[in-house]
Amino acid sequence: MSAEPTARTRVQLPYWLHGSIQTTLLLVLTLVVLAPLLIMFVATFQDGNDVIRRGLSFDIDLGSLSLDNYVMLFTDSGPYFRWFANSILLTVAQVAGTLLVSSFVAYGFAVYDFKGKTALFIAVLLLMAVPFEIMMLPLYVLVNDVGLADSYSVIVLPFLAASVTIFYFRQYFLGIPKDLLEAGRMDGATEFGIFFKIVVPVAKPAFAAMAILNGMIIWNNFLWPLLVLRSESKFTLPIGLNTLLTPHENNYELLIIGSMFSLLPILVLFLLFQRFFVAGMTAGALKG
């Protein structure tokens, strides 16, 4: 006769051991994520040519560290802070415009019924699958034909209605109770009043999440501004940093410390909206 199989017993780890394992894993993951930033930060105190020649590493000669790069950044960095200001201006303008226009479009898809609504929304979904490189050439030809090249408007205007942002807002707005909107109409509020006084406050997590994601994309945008901007005084920070590497001379010191400082706006943006970010992303994922 075969012996009956014995039921497996689950071993319950002590609470302190379970917490210690989780903490250790999170610390290791944090170090892995932060290690490149720490190495880059240390490189800002080193000679740029030495960094490029030896590569980024934790093998550091403490005697070679100095503040020369920081002195150069604030006293002899040329148009760097002009590029920095251009990027901030464009990022703020495009994020604000994208949130406004995309949320309007998404609100229409979520709340109103009109002819062709399904077909238009399918078109928005299809645009999410089209790489920008496919649309880049005809858009560039159009920009030159209408004489908008070398202007900031051509960087901002074509992308105000972002398909991903429209889709996300639409999914979020579908979760807002219709009775709340009807109550606003019964109180005599206009449609714009309902949107700005009822929908926007309820959707703060969604706006924060999209502000961070769009801000990161716009701040790091390189290809399209490179195509349409010609004047050095109008360059954004990614383009300006790229011009520091030339066949004749390379300014590695400004490239390294300038790249490090370029992380600050995104870090500040995330710190400002971090309490809404997780809530917004989770709610947007669950609403359908």
Detailed description of the structure:
The chain is mostly helical and 288 residues long. 69% of the residues lie in helices and 0% in strands. Helix 4 (80-111) crosses helix 8, helix 4 (80-111) crosses helix 11 (204-219) and helix 8 packs antiparallel against helix 11. The longest helix is centred in the first third of the chain and has 32 residues, at 80-111.
Topology:
Elements: H1 15-43, H2 48-54, H3 68-75, H4 80-111, H5 117-128, H6 132-146, H7 153-156, H8 163-173, H9 178-186, H10 191-202, H11 204-219, H12 223-228, H13 237-242, H14 252-261, H15 264-286
Helix pairs in contact: 3-14, 4-8, 4-11, 5-8, 8-11, 9-10, 11-15
Could you list some keywords that capture this structure?
mainly alpha; 0% strand
The helix content is 55-70%
Beta-strand fraction estimate: under 5%
Principal-axes geometry comes out as globular
Distance from first to last alpha carbon: 56 Å
Low-confidence stretches: 284-288
The largest sheet, given as strand count, sense and whether it forms a barrel, is:
none
Radius of gyration: 25 Å
- Average per-residue pLDDT, rounded, comes to 84
Helix-and-strand structural type = mainly alpha
SSE run: HHHHHHHHHHHHHHH
The number of helical elements comes to 15
The overall strand count is: 0
